[in-house]
Amino acid sequence: MRGQALLRGGRVREHIVSAVIGIRSVAEGLKVRLRAAPHPMWVLGPLAVIVAVPVADGFLPPDIHLAHVLDVAVAVVALRAGPRLTALIGSLSVLSLIMAGAERRILGTESVVVELGTLVALCAFLVFFTHLRDRSRQKLVQVRSISDATQRVVLRPLPERAGPVELASRYRGAEADACIGGDLYAVARISGSTRLLIGDVRGKGLASISDTAVVLGAFRAASHRQIPLPQLVGHMEDAIRWGLAEFSRSEDDAAERFVTAAIVDIPDNEPVVHLVSCGHPPPLLLHRDTRAATALVVPEPAPPLGLDAISGSLYLPATFPFGEGDRLMLYTDGVSEARDRSGVFYPLTERVTRWADQEPEVLLHRVVSDLQEYTDGHLDDDMAIVVARRDGKAAVA
To answer: Which strands, in side-by-side order, build the sheet including 183-190?
Structure first.
């Protein structure tokens, strides 16, 4: 029952997602139409040819005919224009050919009839082609709108600040054109502290979105209960286990679904960070003074969330120093297990020290750019990174 209560708000979010998707789909459709509109020269050039053909035919020798140029005019417009404009240019081209034939009094000849039939067939084909292309483009716009809206509702962008902590985040899905997948992050501001979550559900890409939504809903619902960190993770375990089972096809499928996660609590008035690790890669602490990177390895890590039924583990937080100016980097294995062409893992701990004194947003940009260069742009897994810096400014609950 506790898990059901924590995730009951998910039903409301589904309606919100649907409304946001509809609005964004219309907006994105308008943007695409504006971007897809052909440059005036793509239309003025063919129009000039259409006008020039019957005029030039009146001055050319009888054995020279420019009708084939009209085919090119229609084809050029079809490269960028939609079916309506293509049909208009095609109709004008047919009319231009008729005028040229009538001017020379050869409209009924076999040659002109064949040219006219060929031009009409070409125009009909190009109109059909542009119709199919526009329909496919519109479907792609809708898919991207759904992905974008889902990300903004499920995987909300982190604020630039939460209390005395400055935040920056990056996300990249494993699948092309997907803005959300199996990696996740979230922040919750409670009285006296800031709580961060980073996690990685089993699987990747669009197939893991349901599990991602379950984890994020559980964290947001449990965080605002103002309970200690171990209890918060315990509540998350109950909700996640129930939620993953609801989306599973069978008991065996439910037993194989789990989430690795790192849950962090940063007190406002203590220079420390409390960490519970559930089978997740250890966060990196970047020291302000030494610019060294230290992996925050928890002495007693818990198993991934969703497996408590077989483990019965306790969630014991570990405490580490986290002073003013220090930076905390949380990441998923899509970063630490990225490989170069020879199969060598990305050395995150070594590379990140180069930019340890940078602002969080700049630090993230440097790491992501370096990672893409290291892998030649071939990232095969979802990737999420969060950087938190304690700057000592007044906290706002």
So the answer is: 183-190, 193-201, 259-267, 272-278, 318-321
At 204, the pLDDT band (50, 70, 90 cuts) reads low
Query: Could you tell me the pLDDT band of residue 144, with boundaries at 50, 70 and 90?
Result: confident
The answer as to whether 13 is a domain residue is no
In a shared domain, residues 330 and 238? yes
312, with CB counted inside 10 A (0-12, 13-18, 19+), is: exposed
The verdict on residue 330 lying in a domain is yes
- Regarding pTM above 0.90, the answer is no
Residue 25: CB partners within 8 Å, gap ≥ 6?
A: 141, 142, 145, 146
Let me know the angle formed at the C-alpha of 192 by 190 and 194, rounded to the nearest 5 degrees. 55
Which of 94, 121, 147 corresponds to the end of one domain? 147
Is it the case that residue 329 has pLDDT exceeding 50? yes
For residues 160, 162, 166, 167, the Cα torsion angle rounded to the nearest 10 degrees is: -60
Give domain status of residue 235, yes or no.
yes
121 belongs to a structural domain: yes
Place of tokens 């109709």: 91
Q: Are 55 and 136 within one domain? A: yes
Here the CATH number for the domain that contains residue 284 is 3.60.40.10
Say whether both 89 and 216 belong to one domain.
no
Rounded distance between C-alpha atoms, residue 66 and residue 57, angstroms: 7
Confidence of residue 374 (pLDDT cuts 50, 70, 90): very high
Please name the residue that has the structure tokens 């502290």: 193
> How far is CA 298 from each of CA 183, 186, 208, rounded to the nearest angstrom?
21, 21, 27
> Going by C-beta distance under 8 Å and a sequence separation of 6 or more, which residues neighbour residue 375?
338, 339, 340, 346
- Same structural domain, 206 and 113: no
Tally the domains of the chain.
2
Q: What whole-number distance in Å separates Cα of residue 273 and Cα of residue 77? A: 62
Q: Which domain holds residue 111?
A: 36-147
Those residues whose C-beta lies under 8 Å from the C-beta of residue 277, and which sit 6 or more positions away, are 261, 262, 298, 301, 302, 318
Question: C-alpha angle with apex 239: 385 to 254, nearest 5 degrees?
Answer: 90
Question: What average pLDDT does range 325-329 have in this prediction?
Answer: 95
Residues 250, 380: one domain?
A: yes
